[in-house]
Design a protein that fits this description.
heterodimer; A: 313 residues; alpha/beta; Rossmann fold; 2 domains; six-stranded parallel sheet; six-stranded mixed sheet; 18% strand; elongated; B: 336 residues; mainly alpha; ABC transporter involved in vitamin B12 uptake, BtuC; 75% helix
Amino acid sequence: MLNRRTLIGAIGIGALVGLAGPAAAQETYIPLISKGFQHQFWQAVKAGAEQAAKDYKVRITFEGPDSETMVDKQIDMLSAALAKNPQAIGFAALDSQAAIPLLRKAQAAKIPVIAFDSGVDSDIPLTTAATNNIAAAALAADKMAEFIGGEGDIALVVHDQTSRTGIDRRDGFVNRIKEKYPKINIVSVQYGSGDHLKSTEITKSILQANPKLKGIFGANEGSAIGVVNGAKEMNRKIVIIGYDSGKQQKQAIQEGLMAGAITQNPVGIGYKTVEAAVKALKGEKLDKVIDTGFFYYDKSNMSDPKISAVLYD
Amino acid sequence: MTTIAEQETRAVIKSAVLSQGAWQKILAFASLIALMAVFSIASENFLQRDNLIGILQATAVNGVLAVAATFVIITGGIDLSVGTLMTFCAVIAGVFLTYWGLPMPVGILAAIAAGALCGSISGAIIAKMKVPPFIATLGMMMLLKGLALVISGTRPIYFNDTPNFPMISQESLIGTILPFLPIPNGVLILFVVAIVSSIVLTRTALGRYTFALGSNEEAVRLSGVNTDFWKIIVYTVSGAICGIAGLIIASRLNSAQPALGQGYELDAIAAVVIGGTSLSGGRGTILGTIIGALIISVLTNGLRILSVAQEWQTVVTGIIIILAVYADILRRKGQG
């Protein structure tokens, strides 16, 4: 049995070395620890980071936990990244407090930390490359009000109630409606983990409960697609405003099922994070916040090169 | 009656112990060492003190949960609620310490008591209401996930008002005695839990009945043992251990994260199975489970250190889990 084991081990070594690829010793290495990985949004951030890595001739890796609730798994990833003696680190915290001990360690080792996306609630990161989610969701609220004529019932399907983006997008939208549109009534705010199927079911129950509902805001890609699916299955014509992009959402806008959506600039987030890290290593001074921008897009401007460049499939 | 029962259970235990001799443990340990050797050769950054401590720290929560799951799995049951029960207990600690401002020992006891209580409820549903363990604990998993969100108001509860709370898992008692070995307290707790559990399983009546329930529950019951009672006790102990895991994770994150927990049961079950505990019950060791949990952590960390693309990390982990269990089966055949 020992022989079989050794054989398996040997195959293992071969496979691992093959997967790891050649590791040059002297290059600049910048690991990015993100909040997620599988989602197309994160893949777009990764693509931006890889582009910057190519432009600035540095090596990056991009990792994130399977789910945005796995705070401890993300901390383990950060810990492993630090063990690799990187020159700088990009980090999007799921929970800032939990990461503080490791960030202090990075600081002590003089490894510059660049925060991205939802950022890190601490003084340690040199800068944060992120979307202003409150302003972006407020724009979605304005668009919603415009489409439904400034009055009537609406609802929100949000990805979660604990993350910074979930809270900011919900509050940005809800507060704008409350401040500017007194005749609009938000009947329900529900949470579907950004899961397509769950968000679909939530949408259907909201529509079932509110026959006069005029519109729903889906606060991230998964939520927005769920809203589209739910409305389609219930055969209801409502105004849907989405968030982020992705193939299905783009298609829904083209087919007129969705009025339009807010897009962040995920490619820009990834690019600016790596760029800021490189600048920090050169000793350049960085602003505390790098606004990576957002846009409202619909059928009319989707093919505009400025917009299509930040949309992802 | 009792003497027959004792003999019966002793016989069952004896066969269980004999079928997994010291040889197997050495081999399981050897595969862990082999894995570490591979990573050490592949990257100089792997075998560093800080990284090894990082691996141990990453094992603390999953290891304790896996110990909790080992008890239940040896009885032939399954517990899908260990992850969300851990979260629920963390939230309870948060309520006692942060919301109510009670002293730290009270919060610690409350978390463990909450775990034991929930475990006993699962046990009662399984033993008395005859709901299959898979379904009973699936229900508990969802129930506790929901309750954790409700009680916390869906927001993380921070322990900033209890400045000593992070000590539970972050600081190092060993490090104050041996400065070159700053092993975090969370890891120390894992080892204490493992050693105590191992003694309970191998040296006490509870341990004997745990194995006996998994080997032949009907025979044990017919010999006059109150199997329902012992089953509830096993789930209660398992729940209390989940409470300890809740304290470790809450202390590590300095917060109770109410949305976390689902999915952790699968990592725990994987560690148990890699460690040679049979999912059909009657056979298993705590040492095996700890080695299983370490194999998962070493693998996860090593693949990260090698900068293997994340999608491939998942593929490799899946393959290794299957290989580990297959090797265990081969070993067993060879012995039989």
